[in-house]
Amino acid sequence: MPFVLLYLVVEIVAVVALGSWIGALPTLLVLLAGSVLGLWLARREGLRAAQALAEAARNRRVATSETTDGMLVAVGGLLLFVPGLVTDVLGLLLVLPPTRALVRRRLVASTERRHPGLRTARIRSEGQVIDAEVVDVRPGAGTEPPRRPGGPMVIEGTVVDER
């Protein structure tokens, strides 16, 4: 509830400030033009993000930036759909490619800083991807890997060539 009240106060203050600066009719035109332009941009950038995601899937590469861009465009479109001057500006910032790239980089860096064990997939080469499971082999960890009697640790698995 306090968030809704804060949102309403911020939006009202922004619209009143803009209205007192440029007038009532130009303020309404700015709100209308911002929404129309923003929704058009959100549609266009959303289609681009979907095409980039499909291209990454066709090329069998990890689509982290494409997925993040799609999410940011969706959030930007939602903000443009919500009435208000401040939400329109925030939505436009998320929909425009240069500011979206900046937000994406900061979002990824912030997530990696908060969750050091979690790293985003940044595969830069066209190397082979191996699906594997990590087993904790410390004493008392519960699961010991298979071993040959008197020999080295054995790694069991199947190699599948999907070319």
From TrEMBL:
Record's keyword annotation contains Transmembrane helix: yes
Pfam families: FxsA
Region (Disordered): 138-163
Cellular component GO terms, alphabetical: membrane
Keywords, in A-Z order: Membrane, Transmembrane, Transmembrane helix
Domain of life (superkingdom): Bacteria
Residues that span the membrane, as ranges: 12-41, 71-96
NCBIfam families: PRK11463.1-2
Stated name of the protein: Uncharacterized protein
Organism: Pseudonocardia halophobica
